[in-house]
Amino acid sequence: MYELMLDTANLEELTKGINDWPVVGVTSNPSILKREGDIDVYARLAAIKALCGNRRSLHVQVVSETTDDIVDEAHYILRRLGSDVFIKIPVSAEGLPAIKRLAAEGVNITATAIYSALQGILAVLAGAKYIAVYYNRMENNCTDPNMVIREIRSFIDNSHSDAKILAASFKNVSQVMEAYTNGAQSVTVNPSVIHAGLGMASIGDAVRSFANDFYEVHGVGQTMKTIGEQNK
Is 88 a catalytic site residue? Predict the structure, then answer.
């Protein structure tokens, strides 16, 4: 099963996106929260969690830098927002032990800041449920994100793990499709990427062409509903 998540903390964007699109979760990080200005962080996250309800996941990232502090911060986030929240932890020398400890407690973990297959494999072994691969950032670092996704996916499949690759850090629609094609089960995108994909000029041209053909026969402004009601 493939998944779509939204990578934003803007309530207006999230409300529309959750209502209009097949969204299964919301991801956030300190940089995303920074874009919202000087906000009450926990009030905003609580509002996002309310929008998610029981059918969508919320992913919240720690900012602590030592293993013990990461674990302590994760516990605090869970107390404030609920035990079903996914804790995002960078796969670093300090983060990996925290992932292992928290996963052993049954905490939902999203391993993040992944730039290599080794990071992803270690996170899977440590018990992370989502493996957040930074697609565009890898391309900017002259690393092939598609190869990394394929390698991690191969490990997941061969080890019969239920972990999922959550591809992130996208700048365009093509990157999203490449991530899916190469094995990512989930992607998280800023709503602007989806708008770009749905707003292509060729789509608008096709819609207008279909409508004009219909109007030429049945009159401007008519629809399948209106002509059906007229002919009852």
Answer: yes
